Amino acid sequence: VLPMIGTALLDEPIIEEIVFGKFGRERDLVEGSFSNTIVLVERGSDVKDEIVYFSEKENNVANVGGKALVVYNNQKGIFLGELFHQFAPPDYRPRIPVLSMSNEDGEFLKNIIQNRTTATLNVFYNPDFVAYFSSRGPVSPFYIKPDLVAPGVFINTTLTDAKYNLTSGTSFAAPHVSGAAALLLQKNQDFTPKEVKSLLVTTTDFVTDAYENKFPIETSGSGRLNITRAFEANLVILPPALIYNLSTEKETAREDLKLKALDGSLGKINAEFVGADDVNFDYKQQGNVLETTVSLPSESLGEFQGTIVIENKNVEYHVPVVIHKTKGSVNVFEEDGKLDFEVLYPEEWSYAKISVINKDSGKTYTTSVTPKKDSSISVTEKGEYW
Fold it and tell me: Which of 219, 228, 254, 295 shows a CA-CA span of 20 to 30 A to 247?
């Protein structure tokens, strides 16, 4: 759930019975007992062209003695609601907390409260919630997206005619990151784009929900932008994120991190993996390279996430990690611009489609293999391929 704009924080939780109040109109609250309850209502109305504002629903429920109001969406997903708007009475002030809920959760709750149900409702400050409209990743198994997140919800920004307005969207998160990059380049104009990205991505703060549960990488990337830590960082880590690919044929994988100390003195590196319990992590520092290896128990298959936490000179850096482990694997042999493929799979199979993608141009080469027929692709363009 999300508190609507205008809802005050609570000093203590509200523990009351939940009841259904249809659409929260006056006529919906005539029959039944709503005093000292948490009232669940649906967004909008069942009458064409009828507008029932959130402020109106709140006022109606407060008038019948309700202690709190939960408005669930009338379409898929959750929403951010506002109690204050241009059509509200000039003297309007919310009297009870109002929360928004997704359609799916609302219908589920509506179902279970047919039997008497008591709930605990609390409203507290947790600004690190990733907005429902923020794009989720990944768009490819070969890299991690998003890289990070930045403030983009209810940003107090300027309007024409010397006014201010609370506005949300990625159009407001992007300037935060652009400004952070500009500050880093002001500090050192010789930074490359990859170095700027590394400093921003590896110095973020973890994003957690109100119960300290960390958001997954496909939702928050490495975490929330922290320009202070990025500006004061001394370590550039490339790449700033890692993907390991394991299979039943290949149960250990190694990936290297290149380290660059901005003050010229690298010193000792300590590292640990924080994340999925199944993951076995090890590392070795060889000069300015950190060799990392991961493995999983033979029975563990699927996707596993975590973070390599690197400590250098009492400063902490975060490298997000995704580990894929599948039953099958593809061995690639390169010779004179020709790629030969071998598919290894522990069970019976009949056909496999293999695509090779140029990272920069996006050009894709495709072939197919069977247990009785290997195949190859001729690659003429130089570059990195996936």
Answer: 219
Cis peptide bond prior to 138, omega within 30° of 0? yes
Amino acid in the structure at residue 274: V
Q: Which amino acid is at 189?
A: Q
Domain carrying residue 262:
235-325
Query: Do residues 147 and 197 touch, judged by C-beta distance below 8 A?
Result: yes
Rounded distance between C-alpha atoms, residue 295 and residue 282, angstroms:
9
Domain at 46, CATH number: 3.50.30.30
314 and 333 fall within a common domain: no
Q: What is the pLDDT of residues 280-296, one digit of tens each?
A: 999 999 999 999 999 99
- 248 shares its domain with 316: yes
Rounded CA separation 170/149 (Å): 10
Instruction: Say which range, 185-189, 206-210, 351-355, has the weakest mean pLDDT.
Output: 206-210
Cβ neighbours around 192 below 10 Å, total: 10
Structurally, the chain folds into a number of domains equal to 4
Judge whether 262 lies within some domain: yes
Helix (H, G, I), strand (E, B) or coil at 294: strand
Residues 6+ apart with CB under 8 A from 296: 246, 251, 278, 279, 280, 304, 323, 325
Instruction: Check if the beta carbon of residue 148 is closer than 8 Å to that of residue 221.
Output: yes
181 and 208 part of one domain: yes
CA distance 284 to 261: 17
- pTM of the entire predicted model: 0.75
Based on the domain organization, do 201 and 166 belong to the same domain? Answer: yes
- DSSP assignment of 36-54 equals TEEEEEESS-SSTT----H
Q: Is the bond preceding residue 240 a cis peptide, omega within 30 degrees?
A: no
For the chain, the maximum distance between any two Cα atoms, rounded to a whole number of angstroms, is 81
Taking the C-alpha atoms of residue 369 and residue 341, their distance in angstroms, rounded to an integer, is: 8
In a shared domain, residues 8 and 26: yes
Overall size of the chain counted in residues: 386
Write down the H helix ranges in the chain: 54-63, 103-112, 170-187, 193-201, 217-220, 227-232
What is the Cα–Cα distance from 166 to 152, expressed in whole angstroms?
Answer: 10
Residues 166 and 106 in one domain: no
